[in-house]
């Protein structure tokens, strides 16, 4: 074999090595890009799943904050957003003379009894018309 042929073989070997190295580099870059994209997608998926779970938790567990005065409520997305994604529940059919989104006010004609918590059945007491005496007042007057 001549020197010329040996040089040509070496040049070919170098070209093949460069091509192989380039292919490996490109392959690594593609792999890294795929990995980055997958990580980004995983992060986005995780964030979305987290938001869904927070929404479901709040919807299922925090939607009805009716202080024990209502058996039903409905979900209102606007209220949920306005509350900072804490609660979007609106109580339906407040009982025990209560009213309001969370059955936390006394209906007209009733006043809040400060000696009882809002969760008590008798937290709102009936207002007496002016001049009307209660049985307690009559008992006091008899003594």
Automatic annotation (TrEMBL):
Classification via Pfam families: EGF_LMN_ATRN
Entry keyword annotation includes Repeat: yes
Record keyword Metal-binding present: no
InterPro entries documented for this protein: Laminin/Netrin_ECM (IPR050440), LE_dom (IPR002049), LMN_ATRN_NET-like_EGF (IPR056863)
GO CC, alphabetical: basement membrane
Domain Laminin EGF-like: 64-124
SUPFAM superfamilies: EGF/Laminin
Keywords: Disulfide bond, Glycoprotein, Laminin EGF-like domain, Repeat, Signal
Biological process terms in GO annotation: animal organ morphogenesis; dendrite development; motor neuron axon guidance; tissue development
Protein name: CLUMA_CG010066, isoform A
Species of provenance: Clunio marinus
